[in-house]
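Chain A, query sequence.
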Amino acid sequence: MSATFSRRHFIASFALLGTGVVALSACGTTKGGTPSGTQTPDIETPTKPITYTVPTALDAGSQAGLDTVTFKGGTPNIAYLPMGTEFNYHVALFEGLKTVPGAKSFMLSPYSGSDQAAQIGMLQDVTARADVDAIVLISFDEHSLAPLVKRAVEAGKLVLIVNSDIPNYPTPVHGVVGVKQRAANKALAKWAIDSVDGKARKVGVLDGEPSYLATERAGGFEDGIAGSAWKIVSRVNGGWSVDKGNTAAMDLLQAHPDIQMLFAANDYMAEGAALAARSLGRTDLTILGYDGDTAAIESIANNQGVTATTNTSPVEMGRAAGQFVIDLLNAKTEGGYVNGPTEIVTSKNALSILRHPSDLYPAPSKKY
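Chain A, predicted structure.
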């Protein structure tokens, strides 16, 4: 999937304000969806109870108490603040969140994931709003947002961090929902080594922007190849996006043509790396991603460059986050970290995932 297609898709699907801000609301008691004419079908409200794993404790001093929350009952209003809708993954989370029965939700986000100034303004806005009961937040830079998160908690909002497994957010929060990123990427590395019978490989790494997420993902991959015949010969910042990943991979492969395998810390960079490999005629590369982006899964299924990825099921994660928020607001749980499932996607199981489009966002490009 090219960055150009992604941008067009968002313009077709959402109302973009003049500042590049995306605002979308939905009631969790109705069927979610996008305007007619888009390629994305409605994601149905779940017909069975939404479950999540039993929360585990955050690190000492990182758990905010429910006594800070001012929710008085009724139907809660949840503000979802991802750090950028240029990432389909973040919108997929909302597709799951907004279908959770028993709550209303809206998404407020800049388009660019690097526009943290806009996200800061949005966090300040929802903190000041009396009609907002809970804030579900994604950010690649937890330290810069921590003072504002602290104010939100002090203002009586329930604050949940999603798409992370950070056990010690710099200021106390009520909960975290994500996957064990280091463990997942270690498992992916082990799978990759086994897939070539342990033969030596020279590896290039596409990191994301410096952050907890980038550290954990690349760190897990490094843990997985430790003690093996695999060696990282170069690593560059791929900027989390298809375009930047394409440029970074092109530079890396041209500087180190002996590289046989690329690990990218998210699927967008892996998709960019696949484009670079195609441009260079490199059909011998193994390219690994992380997230479970629909385009990456299709690339795997159709043998278009990405070799494998870790599917973290963002739609399901969004549903779990929404239910966790409701349970926290109603004091049915004390909070903590909720871990989501992962699976390694290869050519053997990619089709089975694509055949369930109601659990994917965006929808696959065709029926499988």
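Confidence is low (pLDDT under 50) at residues 1-19, 28-41. The first strand starts at residue 21 and ends at 27.
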